[in-house]
Amino acid sequence: MKRLIWTALAIALAPSLGAAETVVDAKVYDRAAEFLSDKLKTYILNASITPHWRGGARERLTYVKDLGDGRSAFVQVDAATGKPSPAFDQGVVAAGLTKALGKPVDGAKLPFTDYDELSGAIRFDA
To answer: Three-class SS of residue 30?
Structure first.
């Protein structure tokens, strides 16, 4: 029985033993390089996030979620429950920026990626 198994294995592997080496040209390498980790964001939304711990009375984690097409959502995750929700009303911030800048600002395309919390308000650089 062992001899039969070894014979079957030898027959199955025989074609690959004499196979010629595959030549891969530069185009194949260049295409493969497009999928390296430093270019992953091009193909995968939210491949990585930068979390920010917000302590105080409401301990939570906040991060920016990429929605594609230049749109994003600021998300907070309650530390006690693990429940995600909007970190703040992006529409209100967009309306304030629209008024201050004199040009329309889309709430899903706010011109900042991080903010500080002050009592009842947020501060950011835009």
So the answer is: helix
Q: Which two tokens stand for residue 37?
A: 């980790």
- CA 29-40-90 angle, to 5 degrees, is 160
Token pair in block for residue 106: 């889309």
Structure tokens at 4: 């039969």
How confident is the model over 44-77, as pLDDT tens digits? Answer: 888 778 899 988 888 999 999 999 888 999 999 9
DSSP code per residue over 35-58: TSGGGGGGTSTTSS---EEE-SSS
Q: Which helix (H) or strand (E) holds 6?
A: helix 2-17
